[in-house]
Amino acid sequence: MHTFGYRANALLTFAVTALAFICAIASFSDKFSNQNPSAEIQILNINRFKKQSHGNDEVSLTLDISADLQSLFTWNTKQVFVFVAAEYETPKNSLNQVSLWDAIIPDKEHAKFRIQVSNKYRFIDQGQNLRGKDFNLTLHLHVMPKTGKMFADKIVMPGYSLPDAYR
Amino acid sequence: MDWQGQKLAEQLMQILLLIAAVVAFVVGYATASFRTMMLIYAGGVVVTTLITIPNWPCFNRHPLKWLDPSEAEKHPKPQVVVVSSKKKSSKK
Predict the structure, then answer these.
(1) Looking at this predicted complex, what is its ipTM?
(2) Which end of chain A has fewer CB atoms < 10 Å from its terminal CB, N or C?
(3) Phi, psi angle pair for A158, to nearest 5°
(4) What is the rounded distance in angstroms from the CA atom of residue A133 to the CA atom of residue A89?
(5) Which parts of the chain span the membrane according to its record (chain B) (predicted)?
(6) Buried b / exposed e across A121-155, counting CB within 10 Å, b at 16+?
(7) What is the pLDDT of residues B67-78, one digit of tens each?
């Protein structure tokens, strides 16, 4: 501790260690917040349902998505990444998940929303299994904190199905 | 800095940084603002740097007493005797 260099080094090391400590406590304080997100999705219209030239089924939908994710935002939340996936079973795969729409929610004000949108990403099956298929629409939530570990959650909404014939 | 000053500086540094960290966290949590916590902590680090790193006079209150040069001459340094080792050890 007898030159500037020694003292500066000691101070910097201790400062960074204490910073890591308060970031860890900040991340831990997230556990005490009550989180209950809610969401609802309706299929307004099935725009197209056909078989592609390669042989795979393709669907184009219009969705009405309403969600209240405000309780997910704490002081330590940077953003929430949300996406809607259609989940169904086929003889070839026990679980298919096709992502239809996603968004990044940067703060609490934008967390309560209702939008009507057609699917951002194409709903294409591996095969021709979609006629008359029952599927779940699952809203996946990835909560990204400012410090700490990201955690993922989901809201499963079952009971949707596709028509029996191509349109 | 002298020895007492160094000890004081180190203790001051640790205590000030701990206080800065605690205050930063409490104020940040109470105002639910992560940015506030970071700013208060950064300010605390800067203040601690200004207090403990430069050579303030308060850290030099117990200067070391070096030996007076005239006193040193009276007690000459011991001479280093070169001993050549012989194979047959002969004790004197």
Answers:
(1) 0.74
(2) C
(3) -85, 175
(4) 9
(5) 12-32, 38-56
(6) eebebeeebbeebebebbbbbbbebbbbeeeeebb
(7) 787 777 777 777
Name the residue facing B48 among A11, A29, A74 (closest C-beta).
A11
Q: Which residues contact A36 (CB under 8 A, 6 or more apart)?
A: A71
Q: How many whole angstroms separate alpha carbon B40 and alpha carbon B31?
A: 12
Query: Is A11 in contact with B18 (Cβ distance < 8 A)?
Result: no
Which of A21, A31, A27, A146 has its CA nearest to residue B22?
A21
- Please tell me what DSSP assigns to residue B75: S
Q: Which residue has the tokens 């499963």?
A: A156
Q: Alpha-carbon distance A131 to A88, whole Å?
A: 12
Give A23's contacts (C-beta < 8 A, 6+ positions apart): A147, A148
| Residue B21 CB coordination number (10 Å) | 23
- Residue to mutate among B2, B53, B59, B62, with most A CBs inside 10 A, is B53
Give A66-107 pLDDT, tens digit per residue.
Answer: 999 988 888 899 999 999 999 999 888 889 999 999 999 998
